[in-house]
Every structure is written in structure tokens, then in C-alpha cells.
């Protein structure tokens, strides 16, 4: 019987993972086949949500749009979320989500988040629509919209919709303002257009009259060093004819006006609220009580309208005209029309959108920088934000530990060090922790000993975190409060995402980037300046970072700063440095001298595209790669440069990359020269030929910006801007594709060294990251679909076939299903026979034990684990076959000696042999009993035969019940009735298997007792056969009948 103690261990044989997809057999330039899959690591800790909505009459149904993570839906009021846009959308950045009131299956989504940051903000690609509740989607227009702030749908006709287009971030564009469709998105009318720098920051429809609309128009734009917000073009515009014509509202509103949020009271549509950015003393909450004719400033406190470019959202209660919410860093509520306010506590700050249920105004959903959260009691309690894998990460580093950890800073949250896999269960909250620094961190440490962890964050902050003591120290070279100051007036200009690095040759040395490279060799107690200013140092770009209305000096727009530091892993004293204004410098003498080795970049608008990443080739100290970004200069083209001579000459190597996806990072494979990986604004790409051309490596990865790539062993780790961390395991397949191993009728990839983990790792639960499948990943290519059976054989060092897996159903498979416990159903899976790349996970077990039906071990027919050592996998189809060698290594946590491991393996085999003998003999005894029953049925009048047969059947049945507990029909029955010999042996096999080496004295003693019991049971069976079954055979021979096969014969 399968033990409840170790259920996964016993079912591993049955529930192995199989994927098969069609892909061509070809040489190294073939796109990697789809059998490879990225694995979501997590964490399931929400990231920025910029759009939310609910559905009247369905209080458990809500939608959210994440800043970089796509569209999600909950059908249980926020207990769990499911993504709806993956596989459909081309981008993950969402600005607006709207559901039709008259047909809830109709959903409009505007891409391009509206709270536009200088960092972690992506541009959209227009409007998407679903007519089946999000099951399928179609792109319906406005591809050049950039950012979309709001969508309003006609309450009775879902074909009529209005889209508030905020526009492109980094340059002027004509596609701004309000667009209308009257045919469900087939055509669009540009019904409100103000200017190429003025777009719609909010749009509201009168809840009682769909012909009345209010549009908030915002004059704005960005440069890498400046936020422009405000002008005389903007303002609140009103239409009373469904958008055919618009009137700019005055009535006391400021003429010089910035970003605006607007909403209309459903209980009194003459009451219109607006939160407005304006000149000092004029910004704040404004209100009209006559439909926008006249306005009054109700409250100008800056808590309502600070950092207007990022916030400025408002939500009017649909039932009480005097209740209104303003969304800023806090969520503020007024119940007296805006005269006084209280702050509502939410799971996270920085609020961007809110939908209030018109049927119950205490029920609303809020979107903030930590995710989407739902309340049913007016904000006293909220649903969790720890169930949304939408984190935005800036960079990623990995250590050498087992399992290795990934380190990064999460936007508007803490740093994270998260395990790449969990040893038990899915990757959950217990598998990650904070390591100092903050949201925009670079993280650095000695990979071999990550006890001292250095991390940066905003305001020029730099910390050292001691993992052992849990102490975090501030080691800022010059602790000057940067907020509010002009960069040109600072001693050190530190970027929002300032770099820190540990010297790979001396982990006591750390480097920190401002406009200079700073160096410390005493853990940050003292610092020396290692370089001159390595930026363009243009004072004209170092002044106020925001205007003309609201200053913005928090660091995200600090310019002329060092953005990347790359000490050479090959040569001590060699350091590459990249700046945010397009310069690359190199020292080869530990900072004594520096050379400007910048490529002759000729971007679309400027040579100042910033150096986002520098990759020093792991194979050649003179070789390096650059990922250069020009999107902040309105240039979205991909730029990758390569040098082979320390930067004397550069070659651009981005052929084959999408022309509208800028490159964020490029890395070279540490084991395969010239195998490159590139992360772009839209996803992943690979080059097999050192950048001569590129091919997609997107596979099952959602559309999301890739902010960093790191490679550890056979795993490619991705940091994303909106979907947390992902990993591509089994990188050996990509590497061997680069070698052209896939040619031929059958090809098998070499898995390398695979570690044997004790336990099964466990499946991921809700809100947990996934582990790699336990076992040996066997990948094979087929030149064509196999017409006949395909077999996979595992061969040990002595050349013995220890496991055979077939693509065809066998009698054994039918037996396994016949023993299935209805409480734990399973599906048998088979190796794929399809053309292209296929995958099978070998569970590191020998062939299973004998299977017979009606035995209380249920699914426990799997064979024992094999010991560590050298093995081969052979895949055969007809006359064609191929092999690949690999090694199994001991679990890193096991300290047993080789002798102890061999003894453990021997006991496993001995126990499995005992179980096999027990089951085989039991099967023979049952076969004899069936033969007797058949003989008696054929000769009902033979009284001598009937009497002898009845006695023999009773004896065999009694013996059967000493071996198998016939009352066990499900696992829980073991609580009521004793487990007999077969189940006891299976249980011991599981215990020895699960525990690992060394074998314990108790296990050895128990095996001895069970073997002794089996000897006793065999003697009893022998007595039954000789005393009661053999005479029946004699009688059968006398009558000339077919004799009975006796157990053991």
C-alpha cells in the first residue's frame, strides 16, 4: 500500500512530465524548439497595477492591468488571480481596462501604463478587445497611441467606446486625445485633439447620460533629465453630444494647468470632482456643482496632489455625492465633499486606480504599486497582494550556493534574495528575504560566499547587509540628502539605479558609481576616487528635473551619471564603465588611467543613448558586448555592440532583432563561445553565431521587458519588468543546438551531471514558484514522426539496461490503472513520437516491480532509485537509435561516504527484490485459485473435486489475506485495518528510498524481519500447494483435464 508519508515518492514513476512539439531537425541556426519551457520562480509579491475594474452584480469578479504584467482576472474576490493576456498580447504594459455593463463578455484594454515613470515604464501598442470574457483577444487599433489612460464604454451599446490616449512618452505624437469607435473598434474617430504634446490623462462618462463626457487633457513630455508637466493647452474638456464636439471648461480653473484626474458623481451628475496639478496655491481638489460651469478649489493640501505626473487620480462614490477618494501616495477619503480627509490603510502605498461597486460602495478594488487589492468593508480589510507574480526587477545577480539564489531590487519594494528552487514544496515566502538597499538596487557580493551583500537604492543610498548577523549598515560615500537638490549641486551624482560591484579578484574591494568610480577596500568605511568624471557632464542637463509646475528631484532624472561598472573576471585592475549619456570608459591599470572607448553610436536622435549593460566575454579578456538603449531619446531600435580589442573597434551586431524592441541586456554563454542571449523590451532572443543574427528564445515566456540575464550552471535566469523572475532550465539543449547536435534521424542531448535530490521537491501551490522537475531531463530530436514504437532505455555503467520506457501502452500500464485509488487518480504519460524536440524526465529509478491487480499498494509499483554514477540514455525508433551519456551525483545535502551510498543502494535493491518476489508469488497463487474455480465451474457434479476445490480456495484466500489487506480500497483505510506483508514491504522500500544513505539499523532490522516473514509465508503456501492444490491436480489428471499451474512452477 502506498504510504501517506511519502505519496509523491511513490507516484513519481507515474506522473512524469512529457512535452512534445513540432520543430525541424536542423543545424545550429535552428530556432530552439518549443519543448523547452521557462519556469516561473516568483516571488508572488505584487508589482505596480495601473488599471482596475469590477463588474456590477458580480462582486467576486474583477480585472486588473499591471504596469508590465498584462491583464489578470480574479473570480473569487482576490484570493487567486489568473492571467488573460498571455498568448495574445504583444506587450505587457496596461493603462486601462473596461468591461461593458450591458454585455460583461466585452472587455476593452488599453495598453501603455499612464503613470509614466522615467524608469520601469514601457510603451503600449494600442487597444485590445475580447468578446468572450477574456478567453480570446483581438487587436483593434491605435497602434501608435503609446500610453492609454482610460476607456469608457457606452452603457447599452458595447460597440461604442471612447479611449483616452495620453500619448508617447519621449516625443511628440499626433495620436493623442480622445478616440471614439461606434463599430466595436473596426474604425476610430479622433474626436478630441489638442496638440502633439497634449494627451488625455483621464476620461469619464456621466453615469446617467452617456452623451456627456469629461476629458482631462495634459500637456506633458519627458527627456532623460527632465519631466515637462503643464501648460496652457491642457485643461478639462466636456462633450454633451457623445464626443462630436468639445468645450474647454473655465469657470475659475487655472489657465496654467498640469495633470488632471476627473470623476462624476453617479448620485448627482452635476457634481464633478477634479484633482489638478497647477501653480503653487492653485493645485489640489477642485469641485463643480453645476456640471463644470463653475469650479471651486476645495482643498489645496499637497498630500492630495504631490508628484502629480505619477498620481493625480480620483474616484467619486457612486451613491453619496459627498464621498470622494483621492489616490496619491496614501489613499485619501472625504465624506464632506472634499473639505476634510482621512487616510485609509491599504496593503501598499502609491495608488493609481480605483473602481467602486455601484451596488455596494463599501466594496471596491484598488490598484497600487504593490498590486491589486479588494475590500468589502470600506477599506478596513483588504485581499492579499502576495498572490500576484507581477514584480518589476531592475537587475539580477546569482550566487554559487545550492540551490543558488537570485538577488535584485523590486520596484517600490525591497531587495529580494530568492531561492531558484525549493527543496520541499513550491518556492514561497519562506524562500526569499531582504538584503538591504532598496527598490532600484544593484546588488553585489562574493558569489562563493555571499555573507556580505552590497546594495544600492534611490537617494544615493548604499548598504552592506551581513547575512549572518542580519545587520545592515549604511556605507554611503558622502551621505548628502539628494531629494529636492539639483544634480549639479551635489558632490556625487548617483543614478536612481546606481551600480555597485565587488571585485572578482578581491571580494574586500567594492566599486560604486556616481559621476566617478569610487573604491573602498574596507567594507565602505573609507572611499577613494578611482576615476575622473566619466560622463559628458553637461550642466544644462543637471538642473531642476521637473517643471514648469512641479519640481521633481528624487533621482530618477539625475543625468550624466555612471550606469554600469564591469570589473574584468580575467584581469585584475581592468574595469569597464558605462554612463547614462552614452560613454564607455576602460581602465587596464586599476584606475591610474582611463580611455574613452565609446562606440561611434549613431542613434536616431542622439549619440547619448545610455549604456544599460556591459558583458565581458567569459572566454576572451579583450572581448566585450554593450546593450545600448535609446528609447528615452525616442529611439526604440535595438543596439548591441561587440569589441574584440578592448574597445578600439566596435561592431554593431543586432541583425534579426525586431526594429522596435530596444535591447536591455546581452550575455555570453559561459561554456559556449559565441552563444549570446539578449533581453529586449519585448522578450528573449538567442544568437548561435556571436551576434551575426538573432532568433527568438521566447518559448512560453509572456511578453515582458527583460531587465537582466544571469547564467548559473545549466539555468538561464531572467529578471523582468512586470513578471518577476523566470528560469530556463536545461540550457545544455541550447548549447548543444549551437553545436549542431540536432542533425540526423534521432539525436539525444547530453544532460551532463544531474544531482539526485532526496524527496521530490513538491508541486507549487497557489502563489508559489515552480521547481524544476526532479529527475534526469532527457531531450531527443526526431527527424520525422515515428510510425512505430519509440523506446527509451537507461543503461548503467556495466552495460545493463535497467529501465525501459515505451511510447505504447502495455499490459503493465493497464494493471497500474486498475490499482488506482479513486482518491488519487493519475494519468500515465508516454514519450512523444513527434517530429522535432521532445522531452522525457527519467525519475532515476529502475524498472518497476511486478504489477498485479487488487493489491493494496495502489500506485506503489515503482522501482528503486539507482545509485550515483555513470549512465547512458538510448532512444530508439525502428532501426534508428542514438545515445547520450550523463552522470548522477549525490544530493549536496548528503554527507554519506561512497561505501554507505552503495550499501544504501544495495538495501533498496534487496527490498525491491523482496517486494517483487512477494507480488509475483501472490499473482501465481491467485492464478492457481482462478484455475481451481474454473475447473469447479466446469464440473459441478464432481463432488470430490468440489470438496477439494472449496478447501483449496479457502486456504489460498486465507494466505492471500496475510499478504494483501483486501479491505483497503483507499489510502485512508490503512487507519482502520492492518497493512499486511506486501504493503509493509512497500512502506519499507519507500522509507529507505526517502531517507537516503546511510541505511539505518532500524531499516536493516525491519528488512530482516520482513524477509523472515516471507520465508514463513512461502512455507505456508508450499504446504497449501502440496496438501490441497496438488491433490486437485492429481484428480484433474485422472479425469484427463487440464492441470493447474502451481505457484513457483
From TrEMBL:
Start and end residues of each stretch annotated as Disordered: 527-552
Xref: PANTHER family: EXO-ALPHA-SIALIDASE, XYLOGLUCANASE (EUROFUNG)
Superkingdom of source: Bacteria
Protein name: Sortilin N-terminal domain-containing protein
Chain ranges of the Sortilin N-terminal domain: 127-249
Keyword field contains Transmembrane helix: no
Keyword terms of this UniProt record: Repeat, Signal
Signal peptide positions (record): 1-27
Matches recorded under InterPro entries: Sialidase_sf (IPR036278), Sortilin_N (IPR031778), WD40/YVTN_repeat-like_dom_sf (IPR015943), Xyloglucanase_GH74 (IPR052025)
GO biological process, alphabetically ordered: xyloglucan metabolic process
Amino acid at each position: 500500500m502506498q504510504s501517506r508519508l511519502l505519496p509523491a515518492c511513490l507516484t513519481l514513476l507515474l506522473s512524469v512530465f512529457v512535452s512534445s512539439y513540432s520543430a525541424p531537425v536542423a543545424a545550429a541556426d535552428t530556432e530552439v524548439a518549443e519543448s523547452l519551457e521557462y519556469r516561473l520562480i516568483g516571488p508572488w509579491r505584487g508589482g505596480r497595477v495601473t488599471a482596475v475594474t469590477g463588474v456590477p452584480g458580480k462582486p467576486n469578479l474583477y480585472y486588473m492591468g499591471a504596469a508590465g504584467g498584462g491583464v489578470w482576472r480574479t473570480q473569487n474576490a482576490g484570493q487567486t488571480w489568473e492571467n488573460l493576456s498571455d498568448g495574445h498580447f504583444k506587450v505587457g504594459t496596461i493603462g486601462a481596462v473596461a468591461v461593458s455593463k450591458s454585455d460583461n463578455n466585452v472587455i476593452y484594454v488599453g495598453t501603455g501604463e499612464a503613470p509614466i515613470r522615467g524608469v520601469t515604464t514601457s510603451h503600449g501598442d494600442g487597444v485590445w478587445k475580447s468578446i468572450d470574457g477574456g478567453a480570446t483577444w483581438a487587436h483593434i487599433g491605435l497602434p501608435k497611441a503609446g500610453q492609454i489612460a482610460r476607456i469608457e464604454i457606452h452603457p447599452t451599446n458595447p460597440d461604442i467606446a471612447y479611449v483616452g490616449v495620453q500619448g508617447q512618452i519621449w516625443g511628440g505624437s499626433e495620436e493623442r486625445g480622445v478616440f471614439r469607435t461606434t463599430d466595436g473598434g473596426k474604425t476610430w474617430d479622433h474626436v478630441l485633439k489638442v496638440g502633439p504634446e497634449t494627451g488625455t490623462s483621464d476620461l469619464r462618462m456621466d453615469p446617467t447620460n452617456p452623451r456627456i463626457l469629461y476629458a482631462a487633457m495634459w500637456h506633458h513630455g519627458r527627456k532623460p533629465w527632465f519631466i515637462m508637466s503643464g501648460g496652457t493647452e491642457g485643461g478639462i474638456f466636456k462633450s454633451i453630444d457623445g464626443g462630436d464636439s468639445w468645450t474647454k471648461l473655465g469657470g475659475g480653473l487655472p489657465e496654467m494647468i498640469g495633470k488632471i484626474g476627473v470623476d462624476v458623481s453617479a448620485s448627482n451628475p452635476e457634481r464633478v470632482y477634479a484633482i489638478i496639478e497647477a501653480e503653487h496655491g492653485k493645485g489640489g481638489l477642485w469641485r463643480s456643482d453645476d456640471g463644470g460651469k463653475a469650479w471651486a478649489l476645495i482643498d489645496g493640501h499637497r498630500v492630495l496632489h504631490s508628484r502629480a505626473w505619477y498620481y493625480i487620480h480620483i474616484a467619486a462614490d457612486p451613491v453619496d455625492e459627498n464621498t470622494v477618494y483621492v489616490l496619491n501616495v496614501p489613499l485619501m477619503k472625504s465624506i464632506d465633499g472634499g473639505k476634510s480627509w482621512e487616510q485609509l490603510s491599504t496593503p501598499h502605498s502609491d495608488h493609481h486606480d480605483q473602481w467602486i461597486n455601484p451596488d455596494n460602495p463599501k466594496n471596491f478594488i484598488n490598484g497600487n504599486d504593490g498590486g491589486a487589492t479588494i475590500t468589502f468593508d470600506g477599506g478596513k480589510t483588504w485581499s492579499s497582494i502576495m498572490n500576484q507574480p507581477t514584480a518589476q526587477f531592475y537587475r539580477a545577480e546569482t550566487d554559487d550556493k545550492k540551490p543558488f539564489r537570485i538577488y535584485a531590487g523590486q520596484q517600490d519594494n525591497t531587495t529580494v534574495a530568492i531561492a531558484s528552487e525549493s527543496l520541499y514544496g513550491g518556492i514561497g515566502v519562506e524562500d526569499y528575504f531582504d538584503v538591504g538597499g532598496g527598490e532600484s538596487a544593484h546588488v553585489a557580493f562574493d558569489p562563493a560566499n555571499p555573507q556580505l551583500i552590497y546594495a544600492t537604492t534611490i537617494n544615493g543610498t548604499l548598504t552592506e547587509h551581513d547575512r549572518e548577523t542580519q545587520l545592515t549598515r549604511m556605507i554611503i560615500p558622502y551621505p548628502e540628502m539628494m531629494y529636492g537638490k539639483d544634480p549639479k549641486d551635489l558632490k556625487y551624482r548617483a543614478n536612481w539605479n546606481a551600480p555597485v560591484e565587488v571585485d572578482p579578484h578581491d571580494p574586500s574591494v567594492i566599486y560604486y558609481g556616481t559621476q566617478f568610480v569610487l573604491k573602498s577596500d574596507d567594507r565602505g568605511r573609507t572611499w577613494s576616487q578611482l576615476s575622473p568624471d566619466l560622463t559628458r557632464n553637461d550642466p544644462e542637463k543637471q538642473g531642476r528635473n521637473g517643471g514648469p509646475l512641479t519640481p521633481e528631484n528624487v533621482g530618477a532624472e539625475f543625468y550624466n551619471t555612471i550606469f554600469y561598472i564591469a570589473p574584468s573576471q580575467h584581469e585584475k585592475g581592468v574595469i569597464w564603465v558605462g554612463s547614462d549619456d552614452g560613454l564607455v570608459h576602460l581602465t587596464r591599470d586599476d584606475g591610474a588611467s582611463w580611455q574613452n572607448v565609446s562606440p561611434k553610436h549613431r542613434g536616431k536622435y542622439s549619440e547619448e543613448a545610455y549604456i544599460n549593460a556591459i558583458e565581458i566575454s567569459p572566454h576572451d579578456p579583450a572581448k566585450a558586448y554593450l546593450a545600448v538603449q535609446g528609447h528615452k531619446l525616442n529611439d526604440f531600435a535595438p543596439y548591441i555592440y561587440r569589441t574584440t580589442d578592448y574597445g578600439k573597434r566596435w561592431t554593431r551586431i543586432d541583425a534579426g532583432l525586431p526594429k522596435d524592441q530596444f535591447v536591455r541586456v546581452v550575455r555570453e554563454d559561459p561554456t559556449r563561445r559565441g552563444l549570446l542571449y539578449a533581453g529586449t523590451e519585448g522578450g528573449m532572443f538567442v544568437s548561435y553565431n556571436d551576434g551575426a543574427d538573432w532568433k527568438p528564445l521566447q518559448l512560453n515566456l509572456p511578453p515582458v521587458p527583460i531587465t537582466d540575464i544571469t547564467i548559473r550552471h545549466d539555468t538561464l535566469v531572467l529578471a523582468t519588468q512586470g513578471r518577476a523572475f523566470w528560469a530556463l532550465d536545461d540550457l545544455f539543449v541550447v548549447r548543444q543546438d549551437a553545436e549542431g547536435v540536432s542533425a540526423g534521424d534521432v539525436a539525444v542531448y547530453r544532460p551532463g551531471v544531474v544531482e539526485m535530490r532526496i524527496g521530490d521537491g513538491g508541486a507549487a501551490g497557489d502563489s508559489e514558484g515552480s521547481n524544476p522537475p526532479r529527475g534526469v531531463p532527457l531531450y531527443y530530436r526526431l527527424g520525422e514522426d515515428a510510425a512505430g514504437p519509440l523506446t527509451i532505455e537507461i543503461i548503467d555503467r556495466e552495460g545493463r539496461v535497467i529501465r525501459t520506457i515505451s511510447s505504447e501502452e502495455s499490459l503493465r500500464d493497464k494493471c497500474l490503472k486498475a490499482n488506482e485509488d479513486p482518491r488519487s487518480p493519475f494519468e500515465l504519460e508516454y514519450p512523444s513520437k513527434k517530429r522535432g524536440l521532445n522531452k522525457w524526465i527519467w525519475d532515476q529509478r529502475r524498472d518497476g516491480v511486478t504489477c498485479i491487480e487488487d493489491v493494496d499498494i495502489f500506485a506503489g509499483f515503482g522501482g528503486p532509485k539507482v545509485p550515483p554514477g555513470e549512465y547512458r540514455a538510448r532512444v530508439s525508433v525502428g532501426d534508428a537509435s542514438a545515445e547520450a551519456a550523463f552522470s548522477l551525483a549525490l544530493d549536496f545535502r548528503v554527507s554519506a561516504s561512497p561505501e554507505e551510498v552503495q550499501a544504501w543502494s544495495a538495501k533498496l535493491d534487496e527490498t525491491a527484490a523482496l517486494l517483487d518476489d512477494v507480488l509475483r508469488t501472490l499473482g501465481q497463487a491467485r492464478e492457481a485459485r482462478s484455475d481451481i474455480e474454473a475447473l469447479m465451474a466446469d464440473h459441478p457434479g464432481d463432488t470430490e473435486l468440489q470438496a477439494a476445490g472449496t478447501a483449496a480456495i479457502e486456504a489460498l484466500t486465507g494466505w492471500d489475506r496475510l499478504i494483501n489487506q483486501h479491505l483497503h480500497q483507499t489510502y485512508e483505510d490503512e487507519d482502520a485495518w492492518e497493512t499486511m506483508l506486501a504493503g509493509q514491504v512497500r512502506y519499507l522500500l519507500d522509507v529507505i528510498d526517502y531517507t537516503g544513505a546511510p541505511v539505518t539499523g532500524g531499516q536493516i532490522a525491519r528488512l530482516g524481519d520482513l524477509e523472515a516473514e516471507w520465508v514463513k509465508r512461502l512455507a505456508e503456501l508450499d504446504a497449501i500447494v502440496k496438501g490441497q492444490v496438488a491433490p486437485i491436480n492429481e484428480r484433474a489428471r485422472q479425469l484427463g483435464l487440464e492441470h493447474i499451474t502451481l505457484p513457483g512452477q
